[in-house]
Each structure stands twice: as C-alpha cells, then as structure tokens.
Hints:
The protein has helices at residues 5-12, 22-32, 40-50, 54-63, 83-87, 90-101, 143-162, and strands at 75-80, 114-119, 131-133, 136-138. It is an alpha+beta fold. The two termini are 25 Å apart.
Amino acid sequence: MSTSLQTVTDIVAAPGAGQAALLQALLAVQDASPENYVSEEAVNEIAHLLGISRSRVYSTASFYSVISLKPRGRHIVRICINAPCENAGKQAVLAALEQELGVGLGGTTPDGRFTLEGVSCLGACYMSPAIKIDKQLYGDLTAEAAVAVIRRYREEENIGHTA
C-alpha cells in the first residue's frame, strides 16, 4: 500500500509548499505513508505538482538517508554506528536488537512492525550507545535495555489493537 495521490496532492498543495519545500514535502509524504516511504507514484506526483523534474525529486529523496524509496516497517529503529557509540558498546546493542527483531541492519520484520537501520550519527554522543525509534531517542543503552524498549513497543501496539 502506498500513499494515495490525494494525500500527496494535499501535502504539496498546502500553504507554504512550493519548489523550496521539496524536502519538507518528501518528509510529509513519507510520514503519511503507512509503510514509511515515498513511492514511485508519489515521486511522480510531487514532480508534477511542483513543476519540477522527476529526477530532481528522486535525487533529493535518494540523497537524504532519512527518506526511503522502499517500503519499511511502521517503526524505524535507527542505531548509531559511529565511533562514540561503537566505543560505548554499540555492537552488543546491535546484536541484541538483531536477535530480538530477527532481522539484520536494513531488514524489516516479517510482521512489518520494525525496520532496523544504521545511521552515522543521532546527535546523541553524550548518551551513547543510542538508538532512535521513530522520533524518540533512547540512550545509555545496554543490550537488555534495548530489547526492553522493543518489547515495550510491541506490548503497547498489542494493547492498542485489543482496546
């Protein structure tokens, strides 16, 4: 399932949107997508609505690591893979996350709940090792604490589905 063309149109046509707002439009379209990505169809529609080339929209989308052109899980789990987190125990946290989720870096769980991504920095060196799930930052993690965070997300979603 991808973002509907009407959603793309609504986002791009919003007040303040324009050619200068290409990045914001891409992020908004991605946020509106249940699969956390910008579809090929959305790239074409954004280009059409903004009156710019498809290659400009595509190159902008592919330049930024926070924008995905492939479907992802509902929750994006980003782990810092840079030196400060590496030196603070990132490898143990990553191994625990991979085992808990059953996927490696770049993978999406079979139920579509989580995608695990490595990023070069989360801007949280003061609390390394750190991960970010969607917009929430978690730091000073141990392997056990990282797994507990993932399990809490699962529990909250399960409660949400039964309520």
